[in-house]
Amino acid sequence: MESSLRLRTTERAIEGGLFLAAFSSVAITVAIVVILVSESIGFFRHVPLIDFLTDTQWTPLFADAHFGILPLLSGTLVITGIAMAVALPLGTIAAIYLSEYAPHTVREVVKPILELLSAVPTVVFGYFALLFVTPLLQKWIPTLSGFNMLSAGLVIGIMILPYVSSLIEDAMRAVPMRIREGSYAMGATRLQTALRVVVPSAFSGVAAAFILGISRALGETMVVAVAAGMQPNLTANPLQPAETITAYIVQVTLGDAPHGSIGYQTIFAAGLVLFCITLGFNIAGYWLRQRYRESF
Amino acid sequence: MLLRRRKMWDASFAIAGLLALACGLITLLALLVDMAGDGIPRLSWAFLTNFPSRLPEGAGILSAWVGTTLVMLVTAAAAVPLGVAAGIYLEEYAPRNWLTALIEINIANLAGVPSIIYGLMALGLLVYRLQLGQRILTAGLTLALLILPMVIIATREALRTIPSYIREAAAAIGATKWQTVRDHLVPYSLGGTLTGVILGLSRAIGETAPLITIGALTFIAFLPQPPLQPTFPFLSLQWLWDGFTVMPIQMFNWVSRPQAGFHANAAAAGLVLMGMTLAMNGLAIYIRYRFRKRIHW
Prior knowledge:
The structure holds 2 protein chains of 2 kinds. Chain A is mainly α. Chain A has 2 domains: about 1-45; about 70-295, MetI-like (MetI-like fold, Orthogonal Bundle), CATH 1.10.3720. Helices cover about 80% and strands about 0% of the residues of chain A. Chain A is built from 12 helices and no strands. Chain B has one domain (about 55-295): Orthogonal Bundle (MetI-like fold), CATH 1.10.3720. Chain B is built from 11 helices and no strands. In chain B, helix 6 (about 135-160) packs across helix 8 (about 175-205). The chains are: A mainly alpha, B mainly alpha. Chains A and B meet through helix 1, helix 3, helix 4, helix 5 and helix 6 of A and helix 1, helix 3, helix 4, helix 5 and helix 6 of B.
């Protein structure tokens, strides 16, 4: 009798311990939000929010200090745009091919190799962008500067290609076979079936893949820190150097930013902006993925 | 006529698909060839056993690879127990209620948070609030938080492949839930969990941004104190409190210098780093294959 009581107590204790482990993930999110907000409060006391959002210069460490996030945002958005211009079409085509066309053996060989591409450390991609892609592009575009957004964006696009294409492929493979068979029975080709039947059926999954891909590109750090140069630059011209939010954080922490200084506070303010943007994309992506999972 | 046009489109899309895949594969190949061309001449025993230096020819990655190894030890020690426990709870214990839903959404979201944000959180929380400073311990914990979602997801997927009759059989002979988990589910899911853990660590090994953010040094010409001591008690944890650098940071440092000699060093360090990552990925694939072959449901 007593031993069964002890057994039950142990069970309860273990369940409690396991719950705490699972709940610790929530604690991490809370910690992220609390730290980002509390460390940037000092910044927003110093800089009005309206200046932060509308000033067109970002020179926090200069004597004539300006705190406008726009140059960092424009760098982030231009590079993400270039990356998406590569990753979305290529990822979609590759996913349609792998899911609707490729024989089993091709898929078994190609997918692990593509996964290797996403296993390459990002700093290695940075090296590749700076010392291989930029010199190569300069042969065609002589005005391209040594640090530029174009090659960083292109390399990020290739880097997240496997991620985007495998998310899209998952969504397409969740479409039941009978729907395809219906289309083939009507005499449709594979391409017609893929574009007019499978992709529309898997639409929310494909959209989720796009959104999660964008979020991944927005947060990419090392490629831009190495290859895009580290100077805030409010321009949409991809041939010029620029700085992203992530590269700015790297730049400041590489130097000396004492705890509580304005330099230290700016990285949390910039990080807060980045976190809010990616959080929005992640939640939208999660919601869309849940939807396609439930639809069949 | 119409039919032939449609078939032509169909066939040309197959070619487009192959080209899209080729883009990824050619990039991977170009990257490997380019880095091997620049880096192989610099690879030597001295490169692995020298400290970094002002002169590119004499510089090496000793402090970097030792730092990476020690940081990975801390990361694994922190992320594996926590992640596996969380995975077991969510898959085997969790009731279907709002709290579980919250935890699940949260984990999906955490997996998408940019790694540099983890670095900022660790800088504010671990380095300054908890006064841990910029040490190996802090770096290991930061990367552990980063790969925690991966470990949790891998554990859950491994548990999900175990058929429910195993659980029913254990319950039928009077085993408690924990006994079932400990004696059956954990051993049977070990292959999948281990694969996920290694893939998580192979991601952590290449992470640069969060460690720069917490203030890893880029130039270190000393080693942390050795974990093994000649005198009693032989094991020392003093290294947890030492400053450090890691492989990707060393590479970043070299690639951001203008001299070509340092770029060659960066390529060589990149090759060693890629070798580590690919070896871990290969190990993960091998383990998955071995366990799949051994278990027949």
